[in-house]
Amino acid sequence: MHKLVFAVFDRLPLQFRVLYRQFLLRIVDLEALSIQADIPRFLGQFAGVLIMFSLIYTLLAWAYLGYAEAGLVSFRFHMEHHLIATMMLVVGLFSVLTWDAAFPDKRDVLVLAPLPVRARTILLAKIAASGVILALAVAMLNITAGFFWPFVLWVRSGGAPGLLRWFGAYWFTMAAASAFVYGAVLALQGLMALVLPRRMFLRLSALLQIAAFCVFLGGYFLQPTLRLPEQLAAPGNQPVLAYSPTYWFFALFQQLTGTMQPGMGWVARRAWVGLALAVAGSLASLLLCYTRTMRKTVEEPDLVPASRRPVWRPRLGGSLHSAVLYFSVRAVARSRHHRLAFAVYLAIAFAIGLAFARDTLSMPAPRAVNLDFVVSTMLISGMIIVGLRKVFALPISLSANWVLRITQLRPSEGYIAASRRTLLVLGALPAWLVAAALSLFFRPWTPAAEHLAILALLCLLFTDLSLVGFAKVPFTCSYLPGKSNFQFVFWAFVMIVLPGAALGGIQELKALPHPLQMAAIAGVILAMDTGVWWFNRRRARSALIHFEEQEYEEVMSLGISLLQPSMRRVEQ
């Protein structure tokens, strides 16, 4: 099969093939990578994470196969909607992660404009590269679940003839829902690029990118779940069906399988209309952007220009500490690449907070401090601190690092201490303030205040742990994709971090009525943080600031062997 695919691909025009390969690898931002970065490995790990989720859903399918007979309809409706909503969430997050991948950027115009390459060839190559990655995401998330869940839903619906119809309806609905979400995001981006001036588009695009994260996650966690035919037909739930795309495609799936409830036809029609508008709008915006707005991208700056109005900047420590802090603030505030990377971790923290708020706010007031509040604030704080620490490794520009390499005028420990203060101010402090805002929903205030004191010590511990072995200036060291090992991080979070936070939260709740036990817990955390801080400080005295994740080789290779297969195909 793969030989047939390669044979068909080799028959395509050479310009399209070359551009397609380049755009496919540039789905990941190359400016934030090392020179010898292994991008296919990075994409392989991305696929591995989706496969793990698919396997988890497959295990749930077999577990729910023996669901009680009394809840058949409720179970089937809930899982049909949940699977579609999860697919749309994944595609929505993917569309935000690849925000500018389908539109021409400054590099495309400067490199390809002088060449005899047509705009339509660039457009088709961009669409093909983005479409392949999107198809990979859809296929990997459903690689096993896409075969077991249609079978389970067919069995639980009564096992009527037409099993292949359920399989076809499932895959078509998933593909249609994915195309709707991705097409809607592209249409919105294209409309902004056509209507707004370039500089305003850059500023609003960054804000819209972060807002899209919140919309997708907020819609996924906060939208009501309708599990029974009576709930679908209730007049009070009609606005939910009218304005929730997940229920549009839920009705479409039922229409395709022949199990649609009476009165749901208008909801399915919204799915068809929305799909047509999203696809047509995305194609029209792409065509107009490639034919009318490519020249404006030449003036696009690498960083969004800052405001010229005078701003008062207080000094937070010495001059070195303040310089590193404000450099980091500008990097996150002005660079869309870093905002995007940090937004991923903020989105996860935001999802945890939404799940917590939904359960907690539904409780009758006054609310006592509970396990959900304790565990969620721990996870939110850790996620924000770790996320900012990960973003520290993404450089502003690899070619600009030489300026910092030749201006290291102070000992390395000063730079590492400045990085610690930056992480405390930009990561730990906002996370603690979010927890303090959430604590206002609880009474009495004394247990909430005690938890905030413990959380402050935990933020210090998380900060010092994340800086173990960190001998860099933030945003000035290259990043090797694949080094983070997504699979390991995912399983470590599921098997270690979540149980650890739950056990720690249980122990803290037991100790809240006892001041001596709370003092003992605080003393243990403070002692651990002091040990980690002392270890980092000792290592910092002899550390060398480095800017490249990969050591330089004594003999540099040109990598000609990697180009030989493609060269042979070109010669043929």
What does this protein structure show overall?
- It is a single chain.
- This protein folds into two domains: 43-299, no CATH class; 319-541, no CATH class.
- It is built from 22 helices and no strands.
- The protein has helices at 2-10, 14-25, 39-64, 72-97, 106-112, 119-141, 145-156, 163-195, 198-222, 229-233, 238-243, 245-257, 265-292, 319-334, 336-361, 371-392, 401-405, 412-439, 445-466, 486-511, 515-541, 560-571.
- Helix 3 packs parallel to helix 6.
- It is globular and about 70 Å long.
Architecture blueprint of SSEs:
Blueprint: H1 2-10, H2 14-25, H3 39-64, H4 72-97, H5 106-112, H6 119-141, H7 145-156, H8 163-195, H9 198-222, H10 229-233, H11 238-243, H12 245-257, H13 265-292, H14 319-334, H15 336-361, H16 371-392, H17 401-405, H18 412-439, H19 445-466, H20 486-511, H21 515-541, H22 560-571
Helix pairs in contact: 2-6, 3-6, 3-7, 4-6, 4-8, 4-9, 4-12, 7-8, 8-12, 8-13, 9-15, 12-13, 14-15, 14-18, 15-16, 16-18, 16-19, 16-20, 18-19, 18-21, 19-21
In short:
The protein has helices at 2-10, 14-25, 39-64, 72-97, 106-112, 119-141, 145-156, 163-195, 198-222, 229-233, 238-243, 245-257, 265-292, 319-334, 336-361, 371-392, 401-405, 412-439, 445-466, 486-511, 515-541, 560-571. The protein has 572 residues and is mostly helical.
Distance between the termini: 22 Å
Query: Into which percentage range does the β-strand content fall?
Result: under 5%
Low-confidence runs: 30-36, 552-556, 558-572
Number of strands: 0
What's the number of helices?
22
Shape: globular
Order of helical and strand elements: HHHHHHHHHHHHHHHHHHHHHH
User: Please, how many domains?
Assistant: 2
